[in-house]
Amino acid sequence: MSWQGPEFVLIMIAIGPIAWVLTTWIRARHGYPLTNENGDTIGKDGLSTNRKAELLSRENERLQGKVGRLEARIAVLERIATDPATRTAREIDALSRGDA
Q1: What is the pLDDT of residues 65-93, one digit of tens each?
Q2: Inter-CA distances, 62 with 47, 51, 57, 87, Å
């Protein structure tokens, strides 16, 4: 058998992708974490751990802002509920007359 020619080159080119597919299949079958081209671990949903952390960080910021707004609204409702009715009525009247 001659080690020259296009058949040998094609075999050498095909060995890399075949080895990668075989390695990935073995790792997945035995429960090892899979990685993408950059070496980042990929979860079952297809996202890398870095991307998951970034998405969770953004959602955390959004939820913190929402909680802050809800706390402010609850404070207003608590003030309305605990203030004397006459004071609340005076403030509403002042607002309707434009005295505020």
Answers
A1: 999 999 999 998 888 788 777 887 888 88
A2: 21, 17, 9, 36
